[in-house]
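Morning, I've got a small favour to ask if you have a moment. I owe you a coffee for this, so here goes:

…
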Amino acid sequence: MTTEFGDPSREERTAGRDAGSVWLQAESGRSRRTPPLTRERIVAAAVALLDEHGIDGLTMRRLAQLLDVTSTALYWHVRTKDDVLDLTVDQIFGDVPLPDASGNWRDDVRALIRGWREAMLRHPWAPGLIGRPLLGPNVLERTEFLQAALARGGLSGVQLTVTTHLLANYVIGAALTEATWRRTTDPQERAEARRRITGNRTAYPTLNASGHLDNTQWSDDDVFERGLEAILATVSR
């Protein structure tokens, strides 16, 4: 991916490729030359840009301008835009409250998954980035909490893996759908979408009966909660 840092030397480019995931890299010692610029500042600025402009609106040049530094200075802290995205995803996971483990493993799972959804809805670009290598400390800490809760529910081995994926895919998919719908569809468009279904009851009898796309029957929050309970109901000790 083009980094917009200018034209680093061949050795610098090679080092960037060999380092792999940002979570497997150490911050360059050269960062001490510019004490005011830290990885934390870079991530905070990147999140602000992403919230305002989305993924396509984040460029390394724009990020450097927002931080009032040169692209070269930025380069010593993060090598590529991919690095920045990985760091911002972990930052969003850090916004997910990590509850104390209780005596009820299902309550622990509910608390974590609800917080995860809320964090992603506050940052609508985030769900689209889940699936990248998630090795950040915030991601790993919350994944550990989730699996530990499920293990207390009696799951292990492949069942633990499958249920972890099921819950993660559910909350990511729900947040992505909701965030996209809210961003691109106003209430009038949603009403028109529903009328397209109700206007042809012969072709769509089940969709009419189920209230598909009719948010007056139940809210996104209600649908999400019911879906979460349906998943948890499949887990037995």
In short: Residues 1-17, 30-35 have pLDDT under 50 and may be disordered. The chain has two domains: 10-92, 97-233.
